[in-house]
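Troubleshooting log. The previous structure file for this entry was overwritten by mistake, so regenerating from the original sequence record. Sequence copied from the archived sheet and checked twice against the printout by T.R.
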Amino acid sequence: MKRLVIALSACALLIGCARPADQTGGPVVATVDNVAITAKDVQEEMKGLPDVAKQFFQGPEGTTRFIDELVKKEMLYLEARKRGIDKEKDVEKRIEDFKKIVMINKMLEKEVEAKAKPTDQEIKEYYEKNKEEFIEASQIRLSQIVAKDEKGTRAALERLQKGDDFKAVAAALSKDASAKTGGDIGFFKRGDLSPQLENVAFRLRKDQTSMPIPMKDGIHILKVTDIKGNPVDFEKAKPVILQRLTVDRQKATFDKFIEDMKKTYKVDFKKDEIAKMTGAPAVPAQPGALTAPVDKPSESPAPKPADAPKPAEAPKK
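Regenerated output below.
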């Protein structure tokens, strides 16, 4: 509970600033010297909280606690200014860095996010053209590549990224007996695989390849080659399609935006200075080699070692 209170207090301290008492913003719910905290301030700042924090501040008592956090934040801010903290060089740099991030995000909201959002019609068309992707899997057929170490994993990934056939890579590099069959290990239903592998495998689409998964017997790379099950209706598939199309379009829109800016801004990588900094001859990145602003699912910890997968039992006759 102590950690939660600290985390929530920190969250409240990061929210926006209140306004001077002579400015309008709805009914004033608290003041700190001549700074007013209004009902509108409370509503707007509450919207920006993570869901877990919003739950903590629900109801009359929760709202009162939230206002108290805003008061604490304002007192600490005023005290910091009184002590001249805002004039310290490292603080000024942090503020400037944060300002850059806010400005970039605001610009990308207009130039990338807004333009990349698919319409309902486009989502429907994608569903109709790709119904085979939306199946509630009862069984999946897997192929795998098993490497004994990171070196072997990198070798396999490099070939796959070049476009080499999964079967060929498995036959050449996999250290598992399934290498003889091009990595094919048959059909599996839920419960047949270890939890670590099942959690990954049943999230893959047909013909999709997983990231490396550390296991007891080596590092596994999975590929779903077939899916058996029932079709997923459009309403259930819609959020998945929305996310998929949005991510793809955001990347494409962002990449084009970067290419357009490269025509406006002159970028010069100082090879000699980069070499001095790294201690080795540097191969500078291209100006457009930036990360696309896409919402990714939160990263999960690497799976813990577990038993290798066992094929599903053959159906009883």
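Residues 234-262 form the longest helix (29 residues). Archived copy saved in two places this time.
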